[in-house]
Structures are given as C-alpha cells and as structure tokens.
Design brief:
Elements (H helix, E strand, L loop, with lengths): L14 E8 L2 H17 L4 E5 L1 H11 L7 E4 H4 L6 H12 L6 E5 L8 H17 L6 E8 L5 H10 L2 E4 L2 E4 L6 H6 L13 E6 L3 H15 L3 H21 L3 E9 L2 E7 L22 H9 L4 E3 L6 E6 L1
Parallel strand pairs: 1-5, 1-6, 2-3, 2-4, 4-5
Antiparallel strand pairs: 6-7, 8-9, 9-10, 10-12, 11-12
Helix pairs in contact: 1-2, 5-6, 8-9, 9-10
Amino acid sequence: MRTTAIDAPRSSEAFRHEALLYAGQGDFLEGTLSFIRDGISAQEPILAVLNSPKIEMLRSELGGDADSVRFADMALVGHNPARIIPAWREFVTEHGAGGRRFRGIGEPIWPARSPEELVECERHEALLNFAFAGAPTWWLLCPYDTESLESSVIEEAHRNHPFVLSGGLAAESALYRGLAAVEEAFDHPLPEPPGRPEEMTFRSADLDAVRTFVSGLAAATGFDTGRTGDLILAVNELATNSLRHGGGRGVLRMWQVEGAMICEVRDEGRIGDPLVGRRHPSPDGEGGFGLWRESSVRSGSGQVLPDRLRRARSHVA
C-alpha cells in the first residue's frame, strides 16, 4: 500500500485542523495509516476517534503498533456531537504541557447522521478552530468519505478546515471561513418549526408546570419512560438557565419531527460565547452549568444558542 508522508505542523501553527478527503476503504487506510505511523515515529501521543469497524481495520493494519494509539468509538463519544469538543479538550489537557506535540483523528460525520445531527457536527467542526486557537501544538485530521457523503457536506468540510488533504497532497483551503465566521454564524436565526408548535410562557414559579407540560406532550408522542425522563431533565435545565440568566421568564415551544421531539426555550437575554454547552464550566465560575448539564443529559443532538438570542433547542429521539 502506498503511503504519503505529510509535513508536521510548524511550531508557529499551534493547532492544525485538517480534512482528509478519501474515496473508499483503501483511500481511508492510506491517509490515516500514514498519519498514525508518522506520529508513532515521532513518539507523539495519538487519539483516534472513529467508528468500530474502522478502529478494527486500523488495529489489524498496524499490528503491534496499535498499542501506541489510543482508540475511542465515535458512536459513543459523538452520540451527542456537542460532547466531542470536551473529549478533545481532555486529550489536549493531558498532553499539552511541556511543548510536546500530539495528534488525533476524528470522524464525526457519516451518511447515517440525521439532518439535525449533521448540522450539529458541522457546527462542531467550525467550533474546533475557535476552541483550540492558541492551544498547544497538535494536529487533528478529520476524514470525509467523498464516495458516500453529499457534495454539500464535502464543501462544508472545505469551509470548516484551514487545511485539506486529498490524493496525498495537503494544501490550505481556499474556502476556509476563518475564526470570525464562527461567531458570525450565531447571528443567523434558527429556522422556524414546521406547523404550529405547542407553546407555554413560564416564570420562576412555573418550573413544575413546565415539567408537567413536557411530560404530557412526551406521553402523547409515545415516548417511553427513559426518553421522557431525558426530555424533562433537558428542558428543566434550559428553563432554569433562562430564569437565572435571561430576565426571569422564558417561552417553551415543542414540536415533533420524524419521531423526535424538539424543545426550544427562549428568553430576553443575549449571549456571545460560541462554546457555551461545550466547555466544562469552572467550579468557581458563576455560569455555564445549566447548558453543560443539558448537553450532558440530552440523548440526541441539538443546537444551543446559535443565534445569540438565547434560544436553545434540545433534540431527543
């Protein structure tokens, strides 16, 4: 199998976020094995977050060298795409001291992702550039299967990655949006729901009523006890966050899309942190816990505050 050597990021580059465009299994192995073996030769820590079949393929090809790589199943790490950045942040914290280089592989997007999950994954890819700007020197390679993914997804990969590796050649992406665009994306409002959603206004004395409202709609939708509990807990965290930080009142809207329940909580505040819900709040800080907990308990994907208007949506399938 032909392998291609790729130059390591220069010290001035700090974080290198690169899309690997591959066509089928052979192309995937060629690109990732070269990346991994270069890292092993340089004695760099490596974390590969992929689906189980690809992990097994890499283990088989690497043989004994597989012991030098830490693997994690993206189906678990990225079940909720908003939890992927915290996983990478743990890896960076573990290996970032002392100027040592390290690298990772992460493939959060595959054809079976729902439209809601795809939006969240693409937002995740854009936010990686923001989250690790100025971080210790490390290299993240994100594979994209050009044979199975829509052309629009591949184009978005070009927009979200400063570098693109294709056919063994690495180059700067001419379509990369830049860091400023990450924050600008929050200025675009969320699309309105189809049809007329169920809606209620709430204040501080109404949290019990909010939970009852959610429980009743979940039951009418056919949710089982477990999913209903997830939904109630997620909405409770969002509503509590609105009461504390959004003017003491909020509006809850709920609607169903393809067997999933979408819950939106909005209030009168504004927020400017694109990483809210994706960054573990400081124990001695005053905010961030509500959306962090909501992201932790949410069993599906979701969009958190993408339009600065303190509107948060939770998607539970």
